[in-house]
């Protein structure tokens, strides 16, 4: 894929942070002193000194509901090279998942993060699987070096709202 077409893909995609329903965000197995807010919230996630850290083992289960239906295009998960996330499974519209049943469902997509991803290169998702997303569950299954604690510096979700996409579609039709 050329650099131009990669840029074209991203042009209409926005940071979906404004559409997160913060009252419903949950993270299982987080260290309360290093919670999910550190990786997700504006300002916090830009601070390199703040991390989301796992508690009892390396796994994290993050539930993010949205205030409106979104289309998810890509995800950026930043973390340290050694104890940053490795296998990340994404589930669209799966409510009330726990560690006990996370393997009962096939993920909408799975990303194995590379050192480039951990430094800030987004992972392009299977877009067709994320067309009408009301909530996203992110299961961080393991980390780069198999340590007990996984650290996540930043999570950014890129996509569009369904309403925005429809308006652009209508506008394009009128242009012809």
UniProtKB/TrEMBL annotation:
Record's GO cellular component terms: cytoplasm
Domain of life: Eukaryota
One Pfam family from the record: PITH
SUPFAM superfamilies, A to Z: Galactose-binding domain-like (SSF49785)
Domain called PITH: residue spans: 5-176
Stored InterPro entries: Galactose-bd-like_sf, PITH1-like, PITH_dom, PITH_dom_sf
UniProt record similarity statement: Belongs to the PITHD1 family.
PANTHER family given in the database record: AD039 HT014 THIOREDOXIN FAMILY TRP26, OS03G0795500 PROTEIN
Name of this protein: Thioredoxin
């Amino acid at each position: 894929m050329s650099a131009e077409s990669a840029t074209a893909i991203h042009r209409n995609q926005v940071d979906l942070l404004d559409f997160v329903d913060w009252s419903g965000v949950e993270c299982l197995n987080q260290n309360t002193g290093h919670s999910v807010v550190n990786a997700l919230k504006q300002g916090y996630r830009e601070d390199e000194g703040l991390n989301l850290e796992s508690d009892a083992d390396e796994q994290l289960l993050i539930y993010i509901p949205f205030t409106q239906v979104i289309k998810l295009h890509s995800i950026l998960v930043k973390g340290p090279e050694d104890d940053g996330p490795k296998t990340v499974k994404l589930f669209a519209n799966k409510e009330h998942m726990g560690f006990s049943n996370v393997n009962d469902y096939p993920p909408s997509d799975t990303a194995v993060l590379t050192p480039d991803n951990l430094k800030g290169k987004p992972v392009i998702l299977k877009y067709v699987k994320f067309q009408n997303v009301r909530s996203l569950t992110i299961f961080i299954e393991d980390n780069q070096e198999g340590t007990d604690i996984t650290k996540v510096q930043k999570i950014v979700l890129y996509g569009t709202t369904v309403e925005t996409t429809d308006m652009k579609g209508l506008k394009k039709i009128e242009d012809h």
